[in-house]
Amino acid sequence: MTSAASTASAATPRLTFQAGSRQHRMFQLAGWACFVIPMLVLPYVLPSFRVAQLAQAVGWGIAILGMNMVIGWSGLISLGHIAFTGLGAYTTTILINESRFDMWMTLPVAFVVCFLFGALVGLPALKIRGLYLALITLALALTFPILIKIEGGGIARRTGGDNGRTIKEGLKPTGWMRSLLGISGKDASSQVAIYKYFCMLIIAGICFLLVRNIMKSSPGRGMLAIRDNQIGAAVSGVPLNKHKVLTFALSAAFAGIGGSMIASSLGAIGPTLVGPEYATLTLMGLVLCGVATLHGCWLGGLAVVFLQDLAPRWIKAVPGVDIDPIFAGALFGLILVLVPFFMPRGIVQFARWLKARFVRVIPQIPRASVV
Amino acid sequence: MTRFAPHISERDLDMASRPKWLNGSTVLYAAMAVVLLILLGPIFRGGSQLFLQRVFDSLNNGAVYAVTAISLVLIFKATTLINFAQGNIAMFGAYVCYQLSVKMGWPVWPSIFVAMIVMAIVGAAIERTLIRPFGPADHLPVVLITFGLASILLALAGAIWGLEFLAFPSPFPAKPGDRFTIGGAFFRYETVGTLLVLAVMLVVLFAILGRTKMGLAFRAVSSNVESARLVGVHTGRTLQFGWALAAALSVLGACLVAKQTNLEPSFMAKLTIFAFAAAVLGGLDSIGGSVIGAFIVAVVQSLVTGYGQQVAGFGWLKSNFALVVAFALILVVLLFKPEGLYGTKRIERV
């Protein structure tokens, strides 16, 4: 924020607002509308498979939000959160298929399961720092797809092994919901897609608010303190061990909720979705759209789903290049390499910097407090 | 991460009244003993010949893990960074070697050598352009960059050479009869060759590090970057040399193993995890330690996958479970003895 403020004063912004004034509030409202209106209108405009992709993107967004809690806000480098996403996804799938749970009821279970496993994996984070943690979590990401295929203890039977599993009883809109969403006139597949999309949006909204509040609470501020200066945080009375494990567990829980959302919006889950390719993809989504920013997760989810879909077509469209589209992986790698050079804090920070060049908000003078 | 007063061991500073025998090494050895104890039944039932065979088979893997682990250690020693792209740099080098030897008809050894030099240049270029701009304390960008490089190299190799398995020429005599027998178990010439290459490589490496000016500079930088810079060592160029050396060594490792696994863009992925496990076990900043770690990892892997299925209740164990063993090994070592068996202990404040 400080860098944004300094560039704002250096350049000559075209718009100046007094913080808290009516114009400022209108400006903020307009900014929100730019995001919220497309979010609500797009599912009615796009074809149903795109709406389904949007719903998955929201799920991946929450998975990325979970990763961001660890990588962005607490500065612990975890490459293995895809394993927690997978854990959440499989928990939801198995509970719906085998225990006849409702999809909504599986969310708290997935949250608790992933929280506990996160705490378990987070314990090493107390002793292991920096790149060692990256190493161990990378190994976790590589072993998770193997672990779910183990044939002992009925694991492979429940997870479906290599083939994965489809969810038998997915989300379906009931009568009054159809009329509430205004989708009664549409065909069945787009009804389901739109309904799923709005369900995902609601879950994501709740997760988003929860994370925002956590980040503003005492543990959240403790996390930031630990990231910025561990010794200083310890001296100031931040309980390091408690906060580190808590952060890791919470982030795993949110990554797990993201997994549940992905499974239920996709209607299926398989080992490739929780394998190392997606570890790279989610990492790319995270760093491209904004490390340590709350709003980056939405864009990150979109990047994970749509870049994967569109990049092969873009590669094909380049004239004179004859490469098999499956090598779009090079593009994701290229993004990972280039972002630290040109946009170290991702698109969201870049957008903030851009905004600061044109808009200046004069902060309110704090009122003198009565002692 | 601060290093200070290396002559003071952690035990001197440890305020907790923990018994002296209960330290990281004990836990580590106990864990290995438990694994061996579980496997003891099937080992006895299998007889000595089968056991010897399993151990001999693992030596080849051990040597390859050792070469790859050393390439990781070289970079970690100098920069305290872990290069997640190392496996794929090696994979790409193996493809370069394939191009030279199979497609262009060169003899095997010269093409391995040229591939090593090509990838050494690539490694040096990567260090100069992508790694040097970031400070060594800033971990996240380097993780992202090496992670991204790994997937770029993977896609590039697939785009150039295709995704199917390719037969790789063997650098050693590898006909079915090329072996001799010890205690009824076969010892293949390939294994002898791989072990010899490892030995020669270690001699050359220690000669470079111990007898040349560049090696001296490298040791100075890995001991203390600031002091090295103060006495006039060109640290950037030295680190570049380290990256080049590491890339060349990892290519050698990949070329040694490519005959057995066949060439495929992701053929180094698993092997790199085992090499990581070996390096962590031996100590991420100890070359000799990582060689020992590599052989321990290889033997444990061979025994667990070879005998594990016969242990009651473990009938579902498959060979890909070895990766889980490697993961567990990394976890146990980092938890109980983060510096590994022979690494330098780092004391951290807080």
Distance N to C terminus of chain B: 10 Å
Could you say which structural class the secondary elements and strand pairing of chain A correspond to? mainly alpha
Mean pLDDT of chain B: 85
Estimate the mean pLDDT confidence of chain A: 85
In percent, how much strand structure appears in the residues of chain A? Answer: under 5%
Q: What's the count of strands of chain B?
A: 2
Q: Percent of residues of chain A in helical segments?
A: over 70%
Total count of helical runs of at least 4 residues of chain B: 12
For the biggest β-sheet of chain A, the strand order reads: 1-4
Approximate shape of chain B: globular
- Based on secondary structure, the structural category of chain B is mainly alpha
Described by strand count, sense and barrel closure, the largest sheet of chain A is: 2 strands, parallel
Largest sheet of chain B: 2 strands, antiparallel
Write up what this structure looks like.
- The complex is a heterodimer of chains A (371) and B (350).
- Chain A is mostly helical and 371 residues long.
- Chain A is built from 16 helices and four strands.
- In chain A, helix 4 (81-99) packs across helix 12 and helix 9 packs across helix 10 (218-228).
- Chain B has 350 residues and is an all-alpha fold.
- Chain B has helices spanning 10-13, 24-79, 86-103, 108-131, 139-161, 189-211, 213-223, 225-230, 235-261, 269-282, 287-307, 322-336, and strands spanning 179-182, 185-188.
- In chain B, helix 2 (24-79) packs across helix 10, helix 3 runs parallel beside helix 5 (139-161) and helix 10 crosses helix 11.
- The longest helix of chain B is centred in the N-terminal third of the chain and has 56 residues, at 24-79.
- The radius of gyration of chain B is 21 Å and the shape is globular.
- The termini of chain B are close together.
- The relative contact order of chain B is 0.18.
- The model of chain B is unreliable at 12-16 (pLDDT under 50).
- Classes of the chains: A mainly alpha (371), B mainly alpha (350).
